[in-house]
Amino acid sequence: VQLVESGGGLVQAGGSVRLSCAASGFKFDDHAIAWFRQAPGKEREFVAAISRSGAFKRYRDSMKGRFTISRDNAKNTLYLQMNSVKPEDTAVYYCAADYRPDGTVGGSQANEYDYWGQGTQVTVYS
User: Fold this and answer.
1) pLDDT, tens digit, for every residue of 70-104?
2) Taking residues 98-126, what's their average pLDDT?
3) DSSP 3-state percent helix, strand, coil across the chain (nearest 5)
4) pLDDT, tens digit, for every residue of 7-27?
5) How far apart are the first and last CA of the chain?
6) Strand 115-116 to strand 77-82: parallel, antiparallel, or no bridges (unpaired)?
7) Cα dist. 65→68, 69, 101 in Å?
8) Contact at 8 Å (CB) between 8 and 17?
9) 60 and 46 in contact (C-beta within 8 Å)?
10) What does the DSSP 8-state code read for residue 111?
11) Four-CA torsion 20, 24, 27, 28, nearest 10 degrees
């Protein structure tokens, strides 16, 4: 099982960045997928989640309207479009998968998720 994040880097405040998470080794479209992030000295926090079909999404309140989660099951890939980024968005971003063949969206607790990527760093400068 592998989840490999990419797309992070340096981005100016107010700008945009798109993260990707490529999955392999498991049946991607039987899993709800989520993004979490962890800033230095802080606990890992939930960002957004999406159901197996993409029909249902959930966001952390502070990300609503700025971040968009999506997935392409044909490519086994998850995305996070981040717009109007702020310095407080600086963190390592992780994707995680939770087996949910019933089509429900995953929760906001990290311990619900079975598989994790290694993370990609996003640094927002002003």
Assistant:
1) 999 999 999 999 999 999 999 999 999 999 999 99
2) 96
3) 10, 50, 40
4) 999 999 999 999 999 999 999
5) 37
6) unpaired
7) 8, 11, 28
8) yes
9) yes
10) G
11) 0
